[in-house]
Specification:
- The chain is 64% helix and 0% strand.
- By secondary structure, it is mostly helical.
- The protein is globular, with a radius of gyration of 19 Å.
- The termini are far apart.
- It binds protoporphyrin IX containing FE.
C-alpha cells in the first residue's frame, strides 16, 4: 500500500511537449546552441562577456524589429500557458487565437529582417515559412476535431519554431545577446 506521507502533492502544472520528437528537437536545438555559442565565444574576435542589461540597440531598432520582438515574446508567454494545459475550452480557444496572431506577426515581420546572412534570407526564415504554412493547418485540424493533428501541428511549431528560433536569437553577437552580455 502507498504511504500517504511519501506522496508529494503536485503543485507545478504539467508541461507536455507532446511527442518524443518534440523533446528531441529541443535537445538537438540546445546542443547545437551550446556548440555554436562555444565556438563563437572562443573566437579571438569575441569581446569579453560581462552581464549587464543595455536595451539601447532594441530601443533604437526599426519599428518592424520591435514588432517582431513584441510578437515573439507574446507568443512565448501565451504558448507556455497553453503548453501547461490551461483549463477551459473557451479560454484555450481565445488564448489559442491570440497565440496564432502573435506567431503570425513574428513570422511575417521576420521576412523584413536580415543580417545573419548579409542581405539574403537565412535558414531561420525557413522556420518562418513553416510557421506561416503550419498555423492554418493547425487551425483547420482543430475545426475538423482532429485533436491529435491539431496538437501535433501546434506543439511542433511551439518547440521547433518558437523555442529553437527564440534560443538562437540569444547566440553570442546577435542583438538579444548584446542586450544582456554586449560590450
Ligand atoms: C523569444 C523569441 C524571439 C526573439 C526574442 C527574437 C528576436 C529577434 C531579433 C532581435 C532579431 C534581429 C536581430 C538579430 O538577428 O539578432 C530577429 C531576427 C529574426 N527572427 Fe526572431 N526572435 C524570436 C523568435 C523568432 C521566431 C519564432 C521566428 C520564426 C518563426 C523568428 C525568425 C527570425 C528571423 C527569420 C530573423 C532574421 C534572421 C536573419 O538575420 O537572417 N524569430 N529575431
Amino acid at each position: 500500500m502507498k504511504n500517504p506521507a511519501l506522496t508529494l502533492p503536485r503543485k507545478w502544472p504539467r508541461v507536455s511537449f507532446g511527442r518524443p520528437s518534440n523533446r528531441a528537437v529541443i535537445l538537438i536545438g540546445l546542443a547545437a546552441y551550446a556548440i555554436v555559442s562555444w565556438i563563437i565565444l572562443n573566437s579571438p574576435d569575441t569581446p569579453p562577456v560581462r552581464f549587464r542589461i543595455n536595451p539601447v540597440r532594441l530601443v533604437e531598432a526599426s519599428a518592424v524589429l520591435k514588432l517582431h520582438v513584441v510578437g515573439a515574446l507574446s507568443a512565448f508567454g501565451i504558448g507556455a500557458a497553453l503548453m501547461m494545459g490551461v483549463k477551459g475550452r473557451g479560454l484555450h480557444k481565445r488564448l489559442g487565437y491570440a497565440w496564432v496572431a502573435a506567431m503570425a506577426i513574428t513570422a511575417i515581420s521576420s521576412f523584413f529582417l536580415t543580417g545573419l546572412n548579409g542581405n539574403q534570407f537565412s535558414w531561420i526564415h525557413g522556420l518562418s515559412a513553416w510557421t506561416i504554412i503550419g498555423l492554418p493547418m493547425g487551425i483547420t485540424a482543430a475545426r475538423r476535431k482532429d485533436i491529435a493533428g491539431h496538437r501535433k501541428q501546434m506543439t511542433g511549431m511551439f518547440t521547433g519554431g518558437m523555442l529553437v528560433a527564440g534560443l538562437f536569437t540569444f547566440l553570442p553577437g546577435r542583438m538579444m545577446w548584446s542586450i544582456f552580455f554586449g560590450a
